[in-house]
Write a structure and sequence with these properties.
The chain is an alpha+beta fold. It has 23 helices and nine strands. The chain has two domains: about 120 residues, Pdz3 Domain, CATH 2.30.42.10; about 325 residues, Serine Threonine Protein Phosphatase 5, Tetratricopeptide repeat. α6 packs antiparallel against α7.
Length: about 475
């Protein structure tokens, strides 16, 4: 009897092997293999002696198909199993850049059963819980684990596999957008995270994405986006102008992703190249990229990045930006009408309307209304820049927002050319302080993006426009103002 039982088990195991096939696709691009890298239905448990276990399915396999139907998440697998009319299930899994096909028998067809009860597997996201190099379990939030996991387990592997996507491939037009986006994502992880930071590689990946986008722009614009990769993105993200803008940002030290690196004390100075930055910003602006147009307009207005100040050129660029729908540009146009700059005539109504248009943004906070409040209060235009500066400083304590301080520093630097005063205000809004009565509303908090912008202005003033003595004096003035009016 025992012997017969052993024979039955051996026959059962051998029969399970017959139902397993391996498909290796070599260097040809295969959508199933690509989906296996990127999708999040990784098997984290295989029940002992279950149909999946007997067939040879393993922990770490990625389920990419059930009965010739593509599946991605746990719920997709469950629905495919539940809706299957056959007791024999065909399961396709991805493992080490190969596709394996298995046939196995369901344990139960019950609707309320889990995947584990039906075939003996459970799944989770690739980066939800995993093991470190020593085999210890790592939690979702530990030591930038999630971001590094996305980079190493998904984006980097996707990038390497997408090198198999050649122009001769029948899938080229359907997947070239993925190749551009993934290359851009790999660049981002080399530029954003301290644990994976590599400027040379990051900029190279970004340039590669830009060249791919330029080369395939007609395909990008004309092909429908059916890939789930694009669920969180729009086609604009992979167009040449958008990527050129990112290249411009990193070389001009305007890349928001670097805020975290600065906190980790990574020196970004050696990578700043204004000439390259302006080159790519101009490329993007020539393609009517609204952010690039706005940035160049402000650079000409402020004489930033080595550009010679040109208020008329600044006005034209910023006006074009506003016409393209970037609402914040209206606030810059308002300054021209407020003071009669850039070849335009001073106009109270136009200044007020443009400040209001510049405040129409989703979730716009009260800080956006500072200039509107001042114009309504005085019911006229200021006689000159000095008078308006006095209005700004007098109402700071009534308005109490970090952006109103940033605005005052900006005005002092740009229109008064009083760099010591500008430094004082920028030093205040760059300080990592927690003001007590400035936090009554969510919009009154000390915002990180404002903090970083003020820090960048400080660095510019220190390098180009102020002496050590002036800097020291401005810091003392800032400290006294904080002590008196904030803490």
């Amino acid at each position: 009897m025992i012997l017969n039982r052993k024979i039955i088990i051996i026959i059962f195991l051998l029969s399970s092997l017959i139902f397993k096939t391996e498909i290796s696709h070599g260097e040809d691009f295969d959508p199933d293999i690509y989906d296996g890298i990127s999708k999040h239905s990784i098997i984290d448990k295989v029940t002992k002696d279950s149909p999946a276990s007997v067939a040879g399915i393993k922990v770490g396999d990625v389920v990419v198909g059930i009965d010739d139907q593509k599946v991605y998440l746990d719920k997709d697998i469950f629905l495919a199993l539940k809706n299957s009319k056959s007791q024999t299930i065909k399961v396709k899994v991805f493992r080490k850049n190969r596709i394996f096909d298995f046939k196995l028998t369901k344990l139960t067809p019950k609707i309320n059963s889990s995947n584990e009860k039906i075939i003996g597997i459970s799944t989770s996201g690739k980066c939800t819980i995993s093991l470190d190099d020593q085999g210890n379990q790592i939690s979702f939030f530990k030591d930038q684990f999630y971001r590094v996991c996305l980079y190493k387990k998904i984006y980097l592997k996707e990038y390497k596999y997408l090198q198999n996507l050649k122009k001769t491939s029948p899938y080229y037009e359907n997947y070239i957008d993925n190749k551009i986006l993934v290359t851009k994502q790999v660049a981002r992880h080399n530029l954003n995270n301290s644990s994976t930071f590599n400027f040379e590689k990051g900029s190279e990946y970004l340039l590669e994405a830009y060249n791919l986008s330029r080369e395939n722009i007609n395909i990008i614009k004309n092909s429908p986006k059916n890939s789930s990769t694009f669920a969180a993105y729009t086609i604009v993200d992979i167009e040449p102008a958008s990527i050129a803008f990112k290249l411009g940002e990193i070389y001009l030290n305007l890349y928001r992703g670097w805020a975290r690196l600065a906190e980790d004390e990574i020196d970004l100075g050696p990578y700043i190249d204004h000439k390259k930055g302006l080159k790519y910003m101009t490329i993007a602006a020539n393609e009517n990229h609204s952010k690039a147009l706005h940035l160049l307009g402000k650079a000409y207005l402020e004489g930033d990045f080595g550009l010679k100040r040109n208020e008329k050129k600044a006005f034209n660029l910023i006006e074009k930006t506003a016409r393209l729908g970037k609402t914040i540009a209206f606030k810059n146009l308002a300054d021209f009408y407020l003071l009669g700059k850039g070849g335009v005539v001073k106009n109270y109504s136009k200044a007020l309307v443009h400040y209001k248009l510049g405040s129409i943004r989703k979730f716009a906070g009260g800080e956006d209304f500072y200039d509107i409040t001042l114009l309504h209060k005085h019911k006229r235009l200021p006689n000159d820049s000095k008078e308006y500066y006095n209005w700004l400083t007098q109402d700071l304590l009534n308005f109490k927002t970090s952006s109103s301080i940033e605005r005052t520093g900006y005005f002092a630097m740009l229109f008064l050319k009083n760099y010591s005063e500008a430094y004082k205000w920028y030093h205040i809004c760059s300080s990592k302080i927690k003001p007590k009565d400035w936090n009554k509303n969510w919009y009154g908090t000390w915002k990180r993006n404002i903090n970083n912008n003020c820090s960048r202005k400080i660095a510019f003033l220190e390098k180009n426009l102020l002496t050590e003595k002036e800097i020291k004096s401005a810091k003392i003035a800032a400290k006294n103002w904080i002590k008196k009016n904030i803490n």
